[in-house]
Predict the 3D structure of the following.
Amino acid sequence: MYPYSLLIFSSLALAGWAQSTNSSAVRKFCRNVPGDPGFPTQIQWASLNASVSGRLVHVVPFAQFCKTLPGGACTSQQLLSSVFRDEIPGAMYQANWEQDYDSFPPSLCEPRLRVCGQGNVPLFGVLAESTSDIQAGVKFARSHNLRLAIKASGHDYLGRSTAKDSLLISTHKLQNISFTDNFVVGGQSLGPAVTLGSGVRLQQMYAATRAEG
């Protein structure tokens, strides 16, 4: 607690102190975004790309991706397909998480719009194929104070599979499935088990377990 003598300070001084304290807290916890001195340079992004064997991509919103397809648009089936969406780094199951309604004007990317904003879609993404790819992405985000988003399929109902101005780590390609007859944790046998890569869909798991018997 502060001493009672602080009460003699003017309200203006107290307001100034509070504003200074809040500003310091904001500066401490804010992540670097484009335009900030600490945001990675093109050379630093290129270095990350080399460390993950060329698996760094510029992430685009789903509707913008659709414009690159034959005919310049996704079909109605593709727009509603969760399987189709989870293949695309910038696509979420719930399209509202891709949009940034808090900006002014809002940064949106929808099929009906001619010009797309980046919205809440990450700027760059590591399409991880190994643990070392994930480690490289996490270390890069930490060293450059970047916000980090992790996406397997993009089905998080709270929108945590994406984040504005962030570096995305996509684990969709981690498709390994392995079985063991004797899964041991802390020295205790728990019996048969299946271990899944984070990119494995439920349908794939069910098919693999049926085949395993």
About this structure: The CA atoms of residues 126 and 208 lie 27 Å apart.
